[in-house]
Amino acid sequence: MAQFKVYGRDTFLPGVRQPLSDLLHAAAVDVFELPPTKRFHRFFPMSAHDFPTPDGRTERYLVIEVLMFEGRAIETKKAFYARLYRDIATLGVEPADLELTILETPRHDWAIRGLPGDELALPYRVDV
């Protein structure tokens, strides 16, 4: 299970929403080995007033938060970061304009389809 929250300027994010969703999904499937049917992306376009751009960033500044079950190896998470930094360049986003955070939580702290996450039989691994 992984959920993606993407924050960006309302002058940029809506125009790249679909290709950004596609590259996030491809990275999650390839690196985290999520099933192709698991695409949980939320986009939050915000005004400049509500999403100020820090020094050294541009209008294309994005913050991506990934909430997922704990258990993946550090090397896997680093491979995911590298993949996103590489792929997002195709959207004209420079490394300085992308901040990524992975937030991990124990499976028992999620409830999905009426069950706690640690009681679910998942068709994919979270310890890769």
Overview of the molecule:
This protein has 128 residues and is an alpha/beta fold. The chain contains 2 helices and 6 strands. The protein has helices at 13-31, 74-88; strands at residues 2-9, 41-46, 62-69, 98-105, 111-112, 115-116. The relative contact order is 0.23. The mean pLDDT is 91.
- The average pLDDT value, as a whole number, equals 91
How much of the residues is beta strand, in percent?
25-35%
Multimeric organization = single chain
Strand arrangement, major sheet = 2-1-3-4
Q: Tell me the number of helical segments per DSSP (H or I, 4 or more residues long).
A: 2
Distance between the termini: 13 Å
Order of SSEs: EHEEHEEE
Q: Strand pairing plus helix content: what structural class?
A: alpha/beta
Number of strands: 6
Helix content: 25-40%
Which descriptor suits the 3D outline? globular
Low-pLDDT segments, ≥5 res? none
Major β-sheet annotation: 4 strands, mixed
Could you tell me the radius of gyration in angstroms?
A: 15 Å
Short description:
The chain is of the alpha/beta class and 128 residues long.
Can you tag this structure with a few keywords?
128 residues, alpha/beta, 4-stranded mixed sheet, two-stranded antiparallel sheet, 2 helices, 27% strand, globular
Write the layout of secondary structure elements.
Layout: E1 2-9, H1 13-31, E2 41-46, E3 62-69, H2 74-88, E4 98-105, E5 111-112, E6 115-116
Parallel strand pairs: 1-2, 3-4
Antiparallel strand pairs: 1-3, 5-6
Helix pairs in contact: 1-2
